[in-house]
Design a protein that fits this description.
- The structure is a single chain.
- This protein is mainly alpha-helical.
- The chain has helices at about 5-25, 35-60, 65-95, 105-130.
- α1 packs antiparallel against α2 and α3 packs antiparallel against α4 (about 105-130).
- Keywords: Membrane, Transmembrane, Transmembrane helix.
Length: about 130
């Protein structure tokens, strides 16, 4: 899949799911999650939406003429998936008393990929100046 198309499709998909999950959390999960779990769930939704918007913006602004653009998009797509969705899994499983502990280490890996995506994006901006 072309990088620009990947950024647009995943940005749209993540945005759609962020709205659905946000409404689900605000209504259906409000009585089932503790305040801490609900806060964590909302953090996953926020980060998912931030990166959905970022992917859409990047798809219209990056040159997509080099491998760096592909790395940036892949870091954001994969990082969002690992970060936000592992948070959802941790919150939902712990609310049922069966916390999926294997998801715990996945969240920081996703966060690291998001940081790498932002660092590569910053590098690409600086490289165009120099």
């Amino acid at each position: 899949m072309e990088t620009i198309l990947l950024a647009q499709v995943m940005g749209g998909f993540y945005g759609l799911l962020a709205i659905i999950f946000g409404a689900f959390g605000a209504h259906a999960l409000k009585k089932k999650l503790t305040p801490e779990q609900l806060h964590s769930f909302e953090t996953g939704v926020k980060y998912q939406m931030y990166h959905a918007i970022l992917l859409i913006v990047l798809s219209y602004n990056l040159g997509f003429d080099g491998p760096l653009d592909k790395y940036i998009v892949n870091c954001f797509v994969t990082g969002t998936l690992l970060f936000s969705f592992s948070i959802y899994g941790l919150c939902l499983s712990s609310s049922k008393g069966k916390k999926l502990k294997f998801l715990g280490p996945i969240t920081p890996i996703g966060g690291l990929l998001l940081v790498m995506g932002w660092a590569l994006l910053l590098y690409s901006f600086i490289a165009t100046i120099l």
